[in-house]
């Protein structure tokens, strides 16, 4: 098979994606997750919890739901539809940790789960801390010289 035929074949079998449609799906699905979260918060507030406690319980419920969906291998079909709408919020972060824990469980709890649980989430945590530290220091400096 020459290069032209190969490139034509690759072009033929490569899935076509619509950026606008993917963006719309992510927006709607992410919005549904946020709506569910707000519903949980409102439910917890209705039961008499204060705002901080209701927010904490909402976060725990969303994480638990994501871990359960990961455990039952239901995240892949959801992500095929929702895309970044599922992966960007806290549900995606919980999925990345739970998926690694499930994948490396066979290697043991110390060298498998313990060492590899943050394979995907680790860089997110690292760069989140570094970036927030940088911008926090920048904000502090700007406050000290009365620019902000």
Automatic annotation (TrEMBL):
Chain segments annotated as transmembrane: 54-76, 83-104, 124-142
Record has Cell membrane as a keyword: no
Signal peptide bounds: none
Superkingdom, natural source: Bacteria
UniProt keyword annotation of DNA-binding present: no
Protein keywords: Membrane, Transmembrane, Transmembrane helix
Name of the protein described by the UniProt record: Stage V sporulation protein AC
Species this protein is from: Catenibacillus scindens
């Amino acid at each position: 098979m020459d290069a032209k035929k190969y490139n034509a074949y690759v072009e033929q079998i490569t899935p076509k994606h619509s950026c606008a449609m993917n963006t719309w799906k992510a927006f709607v699905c992410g919005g549904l997750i946020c709506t569910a979260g707000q519903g949980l918060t409102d439910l917890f507030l209705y039961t008499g919890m204060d705002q901080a406690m209701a927010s904490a319980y909402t976060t725990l419920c969303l994480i638990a739901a994501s871990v359960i969906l990961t455990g039952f291998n239901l995240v892949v079909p959801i992500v095929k539809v929702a895309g970044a709408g599922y992966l960007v919020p806290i549900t995606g972060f919980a999925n990345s940790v739970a998926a690694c824990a499930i994948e490396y469980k066979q290697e043991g709890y110390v060298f498998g789960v313990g060492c590899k649980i943050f394979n995907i989430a680790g860089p997110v945590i690292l760069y989140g801390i570094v970036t927030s530290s940088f911008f926090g220091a920048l904000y502090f400096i700007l406050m000290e010289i009365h620019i902000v």
